[in-house]
Design a protein that fits this description.
By secondary structure, this protein is an alpha+beta fold. It contains 13 helices and nine strands. The chain starts with a helix and ends with a helix.
């Protein structure tokens, strides 16, 4: 633990507080890490050093380029600070490196970064049986936890601790709720996204297992939220066979969560089948595989104005009067715009069925444009 990387972190913690040049020494008084402007030491003044101990073991010392009297005054505080840092480092090391490799493996699995044979070989490292039927569940963490996961104002260690805690809470929730079929995989795949690859039983009873699972998902949001204690959106994909099927289930789950947030709110659980007859159109994450054209509004030279008009129109429950008022345009001008939109799209936003298709296409295109993974 007490290596060069660890000692550099100690320097980074201590130097801004002391505003003095510092160096971390080993037991032979060799410099392990030091401030950038710190000169080499020809002779050690022991009165300028503070021993570094952890769990009753002496690891080395920290040398402070300061008056010995002032070093003595800050000795107790600095020792406590460094011991707390080392305690944190020890806890971080206890987070199995295997979990980080598992996250990478799951990412490759879901995004088909390796062929099936390689994935089957890698799965053996984690004692994962990829032949077990599973469905994908995505969890988008919102609220304060999301700010921490996606923010840049925390250290890597703090973020790792958050990820590990959330992963453990999700695992505990899923296993306490489903007391059988516990070959579940919980992983963090970036941004505010966690994924559960849910074991749903054996192949010979797959239909019954899927039906049973689907009947339980409404309660699942409450169970996981009780552990996370933060707003979260859950998306549930459908079951498909094989590794590619698991990837497809994940694609549906992630799309469902994101579109579910836009349509119904960011603190609920949504199943891909919630989209009803539109589900086949939305199937798949890849732009080329999706039924909706990603350039639906490309024919408009004034695209931003068109999008703003449609968003306002839908936000006011398709009220011409309210839309014109919010856009600060004449009602006849709005009607002209909507006529042009209907003519170009072959879908009239004033007709409910067409409006649903346009709105869903807008949400879907926003999802594709904003996709970070």
């Amino acid at each position: 633990m007490f290596d060069k990387e660890c000692c550099q972190k100690i320097i980074a913690k201590v130097e801004p507080l002391l505003k003095r040049e510092v160096a971390v020494l080993d037991l032979r008084n060799n410099i392990i890490a030091k401030s950038d402007s710190f000169a080499s030491l020809n002779k050690i003044n022991k009165e300028k050093t503070i021993p570094i101990t952890f769990q009753s073991e002496k690891l080395g010392s920290i040398y402070i380029n300061e008056d010995p009297k002032k070093v003595k005054e800050m000795k107790d505080v600095l020792k406590t600070l460094i011991e707390m840092f080392l305690e944190q480092e020890t806890l971080l090391e206890k987070i199995p490196l295997k979990d980080r490799y598992l996250d990478k493996f799951v990412y490759d699995l879901l995004y088909q970064k390796s062929d099936d044979e390689d994935l089957f070989e890698q799965s053996k490292i984690f004692n994962i049986n990829l032949k077990i039927p599973r469905v994908a569940i995505t969890i988008l963490i919102n609220g304060n936890e999301r700010n921490i996961l996606t923010g840049t104002n925390i250290t890597g260690e703090e973020k790792e601790n958050y990820i590990q805690r959330i992963r453990e809470n999700i695992g505990r929730a899923i296993n306490s709720f489903y007391t059988s079929h516990k070959e579940n995989i919980v992983s963090y795949i970036g941004d505010n996204i966690f994924v559960i690859l849910k074991d749903i039983g054996q192949h010979q009873h797959i239909k019954e297992s899927v039906d049973h699972f689907n009947k339980t998902i409404e309660t699942l949001h409450y169970v996981i939220k009780s552990e996370i204690r933060n707003p979260l959106t859950i998306g549930v994909g459908r079951y498909y066979e094989g590794i590619s099927g698991l990837s497809q289930s994940f694609g549906e789950a992630l799309l469902t969560a994101r579109l579910g947030e836009d349509l119904w709110g960011n603190d609920g659980i949504y199943h891909f089948d919630n989209f009803g007859v539109l589900a086949p159109v939305l199937s798949g994450l890849d732009k080329k595989a999706c039924g909706y054209p990603s350039d639906m509004f490309s024919k408009f030279s004034n695209k931003p104005e068109v999008i703003k008009t449609l968003n306002t129109f839908f936000d006011t429950n398709m009220s011409l009067t309210e839309t014109a008022k919010k856009l600060k345009i004449h009602r006849n001008t709005l009607i002209y715009r909507l006529d042009k939109i209907a003519e170009t799209l072959k879908l009239d936003p004033r007709v409910f069925d067409s409006a649903v298709q346009i709105k869903l296409a807008m949400l879907f295109n926003n999802f594709l444009a904003g996709e970070a993974l």
